[in-house]
Amino acid sequence: MSNQLTKADGIRKRLENSNSLTAALLNGGPAVWLSCLVMGFGNIVAGQFIKGLMFFAIEVGFFYIMGTPIFVDAPSMTPHTGIEWIQLLPSLGDRVDGEIWNEDDFIYETVFGDRSQQILLYGVVFICICLAFIVIWRASVRSGYEAISNRRAGKKVLSFWGDIKALFDEKIHKLLMILPFMALIVFTVVPLVYMICMAFTNYSYSDSVPSTLNHFDWVGFDTFKQLFASGSALAEQFWSVLAWTLTWAFFATFLNFFLGTFVAIIINRPTTKLKGLWRTIMSITIAVPQFVSLLIIAKMFSDEGIIDKMLYNYGFVDESVRFMSKPVNAKVFVILINLWVGIPYTIMQVTGILKNIPADLYEAARIDGANAVQQFMNITLPYMIFVLTPYIITSFTGNINNFNVIFLLTGGGPPNMEVVSSAPAGHTDLLVTWLYNLSMQAQPKYNIAAVIGIFTFIVLAVLSLVTYRSSGSYKDEEGFK
Amino acid sequence: MAKKNSVGSLKAKRYTMDVIVHTFLIIIAIIWISPFAYLVAHSFRGGGNTTMYYSKFFPETFTFKHYQDLFTDKGLLDFPQMFMNTLKIACISCVISTFFVLSVSFAMSRLKWKLRRPYMNMAMVITLFPGFMSMTATYFLLKAFFGLDEHPERIHMALVICYCSGAGTGFYVMKGYMDTIPKALDEAAYLDGATKWQTFIKITLPLCKPMIVYQVITSFMGPWCDFIFCKLICRGSQDYYTVSVGLWSMLDMDKIDKWYTRFCAGSVMVAIPISILFIITQKFYQEAMSGSVKG
């Protein structure tokens, strides 16, 4: 079976090679060479008028975009052509804001200089447009060559209608993928590239004149060094946030897992009544949107909130507990509340698996005289861990990125007063919430936020690669077919 | 005699165990329910106190006033408007993103093409980046493309695009499901002369029905639960807020004292339909997980 497949692959490859760009340039002749300059020429010569004109229109559109000053949506922006945006990328703009004397009106007029942020953004956008154009150009040359050689060989040249028909049949993947793919590239990949670039600049708030928010430069790995090097306050801040992120992820994952399993086992006991009711009650937490449930919990447990007051009124405490305004309290509190959020998920995952554990294992254990605890420790737990390892690792990575719980409960606070750095973080701030605050606060630190994002990505990538590669769905993707 | 005793003690032991377990479960259930009980109770709180500072867990008097205010007092925050905004965005983006997810999953699961594996790997890598990292840049892009500053009415279009653009990477569940549909069905269709498009529409889609329902509802719920992206794109334009951002802003420092009970009322209004939808998705998800083609 696999032998046949590779053979088919080989034939397909050879067929494609004959239609590759090099083949087109070598065997194409003048018409194909000309269609390298005038896109679609080859198609028109071979009789594919509409397709050829479409290629040509794309070419005209591309040169129009690259040569016309556009994107003038704010008075502070100088209009630039696409080529100029790309040319400005290496320097990120040198002209600062200034005033010039207007002879006619006898006033000083403000002249806006370059805005590095816009240069970086549009530079990236136009580079992507160029790359897209190259892909289309390559496709057009190949398509022209194919049409011409079909015509030469006396074969039928596909009409426009035939091309559209092919889009619904053998080329259907193009039809299906084009829109989702473009949305993904434009609104996810381009912004990501832009933010990754930002990590190598000094784009952040500072007191210097001109402001680095308007004019920043490439600084290479300086921000990385600042953040990771020992000694500086910023590095101290980073390592403390990282340590808390990992502690949080560890406790959030394993406490949820063990306690969730425990509750699930209790619910599944043969003599427990109303099993469905307990499960439904627990799963309400999942059903209600988190911003509702977590915001209301945050208000209930805030200083002077309902829980605080009730504890005080019934004489349990003498003064406000301050669930969220003391560092240690806040840390314990978010982990506990996360149990409230997470245990129902674990129950959902675990219930099905518990039923799958072979009953004879327990029977054998009972005959050997094992009690309930021993059965749990030696049968249930090892079995669950074996089956659920991928789930545990995914929920660990999920907890590293658990924005909602931290952001809605404490917002990262209480503020950390001991470390005075240029990018302050609170005691319960995770890397993600810190990243969010850094790019949203009044004095943004975009470059530091970008470095944190890249760092988080690397941590997650390593963890996921390990699970994904070892998971059955990656190895045996063909298993089902 | 001895045997009877031991059976009796075993029974007693089991009985005490049952009592302990059920007490424990009742306590847990109370803990899990209490925030929602508090939320619902205070959405009906009577008396003049509308702040979060109220020392009783259950209010002494009850009233519908906060629900009425929510729908009639539109001066500061227009809740009905927000509700309609969200409904509109959710409907449009759920249609588009379901369509996206279906097409990508079909291309990933049923078709063989050159860039399939690279695309899957790319999608995986992209999902590993923290979503908030690219958020500001996405905002800048949308601002430039749509001129959001001068044309705030395009905010909703921008939001729909945001919610749909994630669909290109969110195909894993659907693809996994399509993988379980036997290839033989497709091949039979091709033998009968069906094009790939016909196979997609007439064979794969009907078989995916439970999963499509799951996908539709899940993507419908997205805009109701998102508060970060919408807040970023709307900025100060309150006319374009979705419910989540609106409810969130009721807890702002300057509003909370007057709006806290209305926040509770609004949360109940949102939480009930979303929870019902969620329960429906679970039903369809389980149905889907029990296999695509039975027998």
Arithmetic mean pLDDT of chain A: 82
Based on helices, strands and strand pairing, what is the structural class of chain A? mainly alpha
Low-confidence regions of chain B: none
The CATH homologous superfamily of the largest domain in chain B is called MetI-like
- What best-fitting shape of chain A do the alpha-carbon axes yield? flat
Average pLDDT level of chain B: 86
Tally of strands of chain A: 2
Largest sheet of chain B: none
Residue share in β-strands of chain B:
under 5%
Which structural class matches the secondary elements of chain B? mainly alpha
Write down the Rg of chain A: 31 Å
| SSE string of chain A | HHHHHHEEHHHHHHHHHHHHHHH
Biggest interface found: A-B, 86 and 89 residues
Would you mind describing this structure in some detail?
The complex is a heterodimer of chains A (481) and B (295). Chain A is mostly helical and 481 residues long. Chain A folds into two domains: 18-198, no CATH class; 224-476, MetI-like (MetI-like fold), CATH 1.10.3720.10. Chain A is built from 21 helices and two strands. In chain A, strand 1 (98-102) and strand 2 (107-111) form a beta hairpin. Chain A is flat. With 295 residues, chain B is mainly alpha-helical. Chain B folds into two domains: 2-67, no CATH class; 77-289, MetI-like (MetI-like fold), CATH 1.10.3720.10. Classes of the chains: A mainly alpha (481), B mainly alpha (295).
